[in-house]
Amino acid sequence: MAKKLVKSRRQFLQTTALGSAFASFSLPLIAAQKAADFTANLPESMRQAGKPFSNYGQPSPYEKDIIRWIAANQDMPGNGVSWSPLHELQGTITPNGLHYERHHNGVPDIDPATHQLLIDGLVEQPLSFSIETLKRYPQTSRICFIECGGNSNSGWRNIPIQSSAGYAHGLVSNAEWTGVPLSYLLQEAGIKPEAKWVIAEAADGASLNISIPIEKLLDDAILALYQNGERLRPENGYPLRLVLPGWEGIVNVKWLRQLRLTDTPVMSRDETAQYTDLMPDGSARQFSFIMDAKSLITSPSLGMHLSDNPGIYQVTGLAWSGRGKITRVEVSDDSGESWLDAELQEPILDKAFTRFNLPWQWQGQYAVLQSRATDDSGYVQPSREALVANRGTDGFFHYNAIVSWEVTEEGDINHVYPF
Fold it and tell me: Which of 196, 261, 393, 398 has the fewest Cβ atoms within 10 angstroms?
């Protein structure tokens, strides 16, 4: 048996060596022949050399339908909005070219070489900064969302609007903003004790100006020079933007040119006639800066169709809160009768998008999908019924109620109010 074992082992080694030699000789020839056959069967376009290098990358032409949807004033095209296509995106960072827009008088063309930021008013010494000077200061980066106060305002209507998730709720985007902490410059200018407010003014054609409590500017305000690693795009404030994490978009002033410290708010058009809400008792809701917790199922959502073969679908979406971190997102498929906790994708950041996911078994049954967010302050996203009971139906801003997607037995999806 021992001799037979040795012989077998010897035969095994010889066979292996021979096989290896044969393989080393024949496999490249076989592979080359297969590669030649494969190449010969390729379409002509795939056998040609690829395109050369480009100085700045662009999306594939096959993704040309993933765009911002624009709604502008016909008489004044520079006044309007463009929605970010949240239903077409994944992850949490919004690409610069798809970040939502809100302009009052178009996008100004500003030469950074001549642009100045002036800090004056109730300060010990007024200061002026060029863009190049600001670049010399220590910089910080912060991932956070910016949301227009008018985002989702169609929810106040009596009849649910039938628009894609991003094109009804996409006046919100999430990016990494890099720039100078504003507190450095305010402290350098010297804040007088009576200073309570700061009037921020833009260099656009509307000379937009808005009042901001000084405490926020001393807390986490950033003079942003960069967005997602590159210089700001013109439509997002180039060359300088004020970023106030968690606060409504109007105070995140683009094309920033002046910060004037005062003892009272300026009471401009955008904090009196606009960005205020009429309450049921006749009073006005004003200076409602913080964007409350909100969530949105982006898939499956309106405009999508579940296949004819029922099975498991991934329910996914985004949650965010201007009060802090998202701690919980619940998902319901029975219009809020029962809820399951969704998985929150890491990292979970303060005042930033958090993506949530939950596998869902659909067997062709009628369903109403909802998501409900909770943040670390304990705030829970309200139902539409609760929000309307508290705020009435004469409002326009800060709509953050639960969104409901109806799934029919045929797999079609509609926007509904569940009561």
Answer: 393
- Among 164, 151, 170, 69, smallest CA distance to 401 is for 151
| Strand 116-121, strand 256-262: pairing | parallel
- Distance (Å) of CA 241 to CA 183, 189, 217, 249: 15, 19, 13, 11
Q: Give the residue carrying structure tokens 């029919």.
A: 408
- CATH annotation of 65-285: 3.90.420.10
- Domain coordinates in residue numbering, the chain: 65-285, 294-416
Question: What gap in Å lies between CA 241 and CA 254, rounded to an integer?
Answer: 4
Domains 65-285 and 294-416 share a fold: no
CA contacts within 13 A on the Cβ side of 59: 11
Q: CA-CA distance, 232 to 125, in Å (whole number)?
A: 29
Locate 270 and state its tokens: 């955008």
Identify the CATH number of the domain defined by range 294-416: 2.60.40.650
Distances in Å between the alpha carbon of 96 and those of 53, 63, 249?
A: 21, 16, 16
Distance, in Å, from the CA atom of 273 to the CA atom of 283, rounded to the nearest integer, reads: 13
Instruction: For the chain, 419 residues long, give each residue's pLDDT as a single digit of tens.
Output: 333 333 333 433 333 343 444 344 444 555 555 656 666 676 776 667 888 999 999 999 999 999 999 998 888 889 999 999 999 999 999 999 999 999 999 999 999 999 999 999 999 999 999 999 999 999 999 999 999 999 999 999 999 999 999 999 999 999 999 999 999 999 999 999 999 999 999 999 989 999 999 999 999 999 999 999 999 999 999 999 999 999 999 999 999 999 999 999 999 999 998 899 889 998 989 999 999 999 999 999 999 999 877 899 999 999 999 999 999 999 999 999 999 999 999 999 999 999 999 999 999 999 999 999 999 999 999 999 999 999 998 889 999 999 999 999 999 999 999 86
* 0.85 exceeded by pTM: yes
Q: Which two tokens stand for residue 391?
A: 């705020």
